[in-house]
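Task 17 of the worksheet. Students: predict the tertiary structure of the chain below and write it out as structure tokens. Keep your answer in the requested format; marks are given for formatting as well as content.
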Amino acid sequence: MFYYLFEYLETFDLPGAGMFQYVMFRSAMAALFSLLIGIFAGKHIISALQRKQVGETIRDLDLEGQYSKRGTPTMGGVIIILAILLSTLFFGKLENVYIILMLVSTLWLGTLGFADDYIKVFKKDKEGLKGKFKVIAQVGLGLIVGTTILFSPEIVVRENTEVRVNNVIEEVTYQTGDVKSTTTTIPFVKNNNFDYKWLVGWMGDNADMAAGVIFILMVILIVTAVSNSANLTDGLDGLASGSSAIIGVALGVLAYVSGRVDFASYLNIMYIPGGDELTVFASAFVGACVGFLWYNAYPAQVFMGDTGSLTLGGIIGVFAVLIRKELLLPILCGVFFVEALSVIAQVAYFKYTKRKYGEGRRIFKMTPLHHHYQKPGDGSINAIIQKPRAPLTEPKIVTRFWLVGMILVVIALATLKMR
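Model answer:
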């Protein structure tokens, strides 16, 4: 809203009004504003949750310090969602289709997570919303995002083309017009564009339709996978929110360089007209996560609950699809995916060994993976991996996961030139 206000005030030659025309200025303001909302509004929201006795139910996992968390308010993801929405509404260009999709995704997944937490807390049902309803909601969002990308005339790209002399890139050029495309960026390869249409090129005249179907299915998979992976990561104070902030910084950088033809040309990546506006949303996202950390860092005064974790993961997935960097997610979200894979591998191995030996065995002492480091490796648990022998403290585990996340972000950004 401020963008339009100061655009109007600029007609009166108001000093400084033109600053709001710049994406980077509005991004900085969005980050600061969402951070302040998280800190100051968060205090009042936590008090309200305490008055409503919205306390977390702690399962008996035999982990050090877990019972001290009993009664800590949950559903704190409301703080993150509020900060993101208000900051984006104030500093974003609201007619931008990318901003609209991100706002819809935030509200959609926030509502889904809130319903899940509400059932757990107020209905006293530990299972929360049934899994099939969560999946249906995530699939629905994937359909909305995927079909909008395919059919909206405002979502277009200009693919990069290399001009080579003696096998050396002299220049990167772009198409003169914007085009609809199912092309995305693939890391670690020389010609870094990948079109889903190539998978079905043998279908002839039906290739475009088939490519659209594959693209929508890919969007659904990404939204569902990243959202649920972030949900599994939310198990230690500050782990999910801090990891999300780190990923958000990288996504903001990628959105900015993809939406600027000069930077896109230098990096030899496709140009996405209007995509740089997503930097404002990414900044609001990072600010909201950091603001939430004010209260969520160890020892946590509030938990985000599914209201926050499902939303954070879904936002990251949708954002990556919009800037055509979804194939970078296994690197960017490596912490999330390893957490999810640890659960999948643990369950699969336990079932396999139970069928084969009559007794289930484990790979890790406990999953998701962050809990593995909280358990002693004294052989009391029948697991293949016993190290570390001595359990690590919660802050140390979280900090090390953050550091791993930072390393993965650097690698992901480096792939833009590492080919």
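Marker's comment: The longest strand covers residues 168-174. The radius of gyration is 23 Å.
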